[in-house]
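help with this record:
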Amino acid sequence: MLPAADELAEVLLDLAVPHEDIGELVRMGRRVTDDPELRQALERSVAELVRGMGEIGTGLDLPELDWPSGPLQRCFPVYVFVAALPYTRAYHRGRGVPDEVSRRTLADLGRHMAVHRRRYGAAGVHAVWWFGHHFRGELYQLGRLQFERARLGRRTGTALAATGLDVGPGTPCLNLHIPDFLGPLTPAACDRALALAAEFFARCYPEEKYRVATCHSWLLDRQLTRYLPAGSNIVRFQERFRLAREDKEPADTDPVEFVFGDPELPVATLPRRSALERAVGDHLRAGGHWYLGHGWFEL
């Protein structure tokens, strides 16, 4: 189920796996294919991953690997995703997904490995569950943003229906995600991403009519406007959205994780090197809280 060593290294490069991790992954790959227990676990995991290919909202629950903690356990999901690649690429080809969109979408695996190494100092995959979206054809990287084929939830769908739109819970929508390591979130980059998405989904999913885009993120917390200039990229991004609802439960670790790289960092020691770092840290040090914003706009 896994390619030979030379080909495996090339596949890992295509997935943007950090270069310092590739050698170890190639060496451990032989153990995965030679050990009957590991190979069986790999087969079960791939079967779970490709189940419901193309469906929306199926979720991913890979079987637990009953193996001692260490590099192989941390990196085992990488072999699952590599072994599932032929299924994902076949689905993409069947939908007419351009090769460059497929490649950039699946390269998010390497980005999440970089996040893991930044946080823990070792090879591994951050947020393994997230990749069900990528490898099942639910999510695509189009320019600066990621677009997830989704459906409006009960609360958001009800709120949007109350505005007079012909939508409601269960209506298809595009859920926007903002990956890090990709430079500034400029208005021009967002405009380009939205234009690419309009063309992409009309061509590759013509039967799915998307009326609205949604975003569920701490970046939509309107408190940020107290700290950031009116023309900042984040404030301009917020201005695209109408709020469907506001959370009452704090989500303080979200901005700490995405801005500083580790949700467990002590608030008192958070750096103040940029306007955003100062906003997040100073607000928390003053006893404030951050909340997820749930926004939408009509497509």
